């Protein structure tokens, strides 16, 4: 339109991006290599079009992983560049927030699955219809012969660590809103350090756990739920570390800082999930159970 009829919109036609296609191809190659790797580890072949890919399984998987990692870096770098160039209008920013909310919701569904398995096994350890479960649990929870981890030792330490980290990331956020760059960097640095400390304590706990993943359904549900959460802590720590590097490079303003805001949302989500894990997987399960010696 020309003259008075011209209108300004909060959206524009974007240039075609290669990253969605490249990411899907990388994921496909990585899955293909992973399946071949697992089959070769089991002593089986993996043939396609008359070619056995079992011998090159690791390199196929590694190639797919490198494509995915490169795509992640380049795609997010483009997103940051677009933000600095002013392309993140109100509509774009709103959709970025919707995307992050949907991502966190999808992650929540993973934990719903682990909690479902945990509560199904723990609330009905002697269910008549589950003959195999009764055989392996002895009709009680925790299963007969299982010593559990003292919830008020390392798990309590990690709970305090994560609660503190939730406080420091909130401090960093408020410092940014007040344009306090020093407070932003300090809060992020402390949060990253607490995230690394949490991972170290959990690793130490796993090494000294009185049961293993393969010991029983208790071990399987425990390590799947807490381990998957531990993976999220590592991802969140990397997320916040990137935000720290960007803050040190002068990125983020009180008006535009969605990258940091998304990292903070993710971290608070990780904190809340841990509180449920601590309350049920550790504390509730330990009631009346045999506590392993430190």
Shape: globular
Order of helices and strands: HEEHHHEHHHHE
Question: Considering DSSP H and I runs of 4 or more, what fraction of the residues is helical?
Answer: 55-70%
Low-confidence stretches: none
Mean pLDDT: 86
Largest sheet: 2 strands, antiparallel
Number of strands: 4
Q: What is the first-to-last residue Cα distance? A: 75 Å
User: Rg, please?
Assistant: 24 Å
Strand order of the largest sheet: 1-2
In a nutshell, what does this entry contain?
The chain is 69% helix and 3% strand. The protein has 294 residues and is mostly helical. The mean pLDDT is 86.
Structural account:
A hairpin with a 2-residue loop joins strand 1 and strand 2. The protein has a two-stranded antiparallel ribbon. A two-stranded parallel sheet has the order 3-4. It is mostly helical. The chain is built from eight helices and four strands, in the order H-E-E-H-H-H-E-H-H-H-H-E.
List the helices and strands and how they pair.
Layout: H1 19-41, E1 47-48, E2 51-52, H2 57-84, H3 90-123, H4 131-137, E3 147-148, H5 154-177, H6 181-207, H7 217-248, H8 258-286, E4 290-291
Parallel strand pairs: 3-4
Antiparallel strand pairs: 1-2
């Amino acid at each position: 339109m020309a003259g008075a009829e011209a209108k300004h919109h909060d959206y524009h036609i974007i240039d075609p991006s290669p990253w969605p296609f490249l990411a899907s191809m990388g994921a496909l190659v990585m899955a293909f290599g992973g399946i071949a790797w697992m089959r070769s580890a089991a002593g089986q072949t993996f043939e396609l079009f008359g070619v056995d890919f079992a011998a090159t399984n690791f390199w196929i998987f590694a190639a797919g992983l490198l494509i995915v990692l490169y795509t992640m870096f380049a795609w997010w770098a483009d997103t940051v560049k677009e933000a600095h160039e002013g392309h993140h209008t109100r509509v774009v920013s709103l959709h970025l927030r919707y995307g992050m909310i949907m991502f966190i919701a999808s992650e929540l569904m993973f934990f719903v699955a682990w909690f479902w398995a945990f509560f199904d096994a723990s609330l009905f350890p002697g269910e008549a219809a589950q003959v195999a479960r009764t055989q392996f649990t002895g009709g009680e929870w925790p299963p007969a012969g299982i010593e559990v981890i003292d919830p008020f030792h390392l798990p309590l330490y990690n709970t305090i660590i994560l609660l503190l980290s939730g406080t420091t990331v909130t401090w960093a956020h408020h410092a940014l809103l007040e344009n306090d760059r020093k407070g932003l960097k300090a809060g992020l640095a402390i949060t990253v350090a607490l995230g690394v400390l949490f991972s170290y304590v959990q690793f130490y706990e796993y090494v000294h756990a009185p049961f293993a993943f393969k010991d029983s359904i208790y071990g399987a549900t425990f390590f799947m739920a807490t381990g998957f959460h531990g993976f999220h802590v590592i991802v969140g720590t990397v997320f916040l570390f990137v935000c720290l590097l960007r803050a040190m490079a002068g990125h983020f303003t009180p008006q535009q800082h969605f990258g940091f805001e998304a990292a903070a949302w993710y971290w608070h989500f990780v904190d809340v999930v841990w509180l449920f894990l601590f309350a049920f997987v550790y504390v509730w399960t330990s009631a009346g159970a045999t506590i392993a010696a430190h």
